[in-house]
């Protein structure tokens, strides 16, 4: 894993690759006491000709910088972030699965690790990256079955829903466990202000399709600006769809022809059903679904099956390291 440290107000110096293992941290560090921490998620892919590639690491670097500004943290520069990701992947290149067998999930962390008892920015920050081979996030081969949660909320205006703060995730676990115990795949959260508009799932963004229009809720502070979300919006536009980033009501969701989710973990995943109170709606899935086409377009770029005309992929020479 990669580890770098810096003092508050200074810049990260060159980090180093060390064996994966436990880390030592002060009991009064802000990450442990006040949740001053961010994380990112991206993937490395092995192509048929044995190249190793990373998907848009610059976007994760920029998102970490945005989150760091919100949480009063010192982030790595874009160049430091990308270089650290490359070093981590090279050090773990044997764990990048063969084509079609999975990917190497990369988890960068920015932690308020220095000791301070009061509620304040940490005096020291740790930038750490580890990685793990992964398969499919959702094991179901068909679409997801979502429950619209009208009791709990994921984020609120003025909060941290728009950045990848560590504190955003444990509060959704209770809702997710309740949904899974009732047979659902995941939870779709509503906006806290009105309870009428959809926002996102526990760990991915959502799109609805009706006719030639693809709509997704706006990243106006309560929704995470997903890298896959951004990429899929661009690909849908490229093949002639009108892509709208706007408020999407539950009523529109229930009247959509197709619904799908996007994220680093789920990639592009069709939604088969949505249940809101006692109403259950079924959507288009399978070969006729737009999500199937978009999934193929995106993964073909990631896996080097087609030329990367977008400049999204960063190649790593597996002979290095």
Automatic annotation (TrEMBL):
Keyword presence, S-adenosyl-L-methionine: no
Gene3D superfamilies with a match to the protein in the record: 3.30.470.10, D-amino Acid Aminotransferase, subunit A, domain 2
Cofactor(s) listed in the protein's UniProt record: pyridoxal 5'-phosphate
Superkingdom of origin: Eukaryota
Pfam families cross-referenced by the UniProt entry: Aminotran_4
One BP annotation, GO: branched-chain amino acid biosynthetic process
Family: Belongs to the class-IV pyridoxal-phosphate-dependent aminotransferase family.
Protein name listed in UniProt: Branched-chain-amino-acid aminotransferase
Originating organism: Arabidopsis thaliana (Mouse-ear cress)
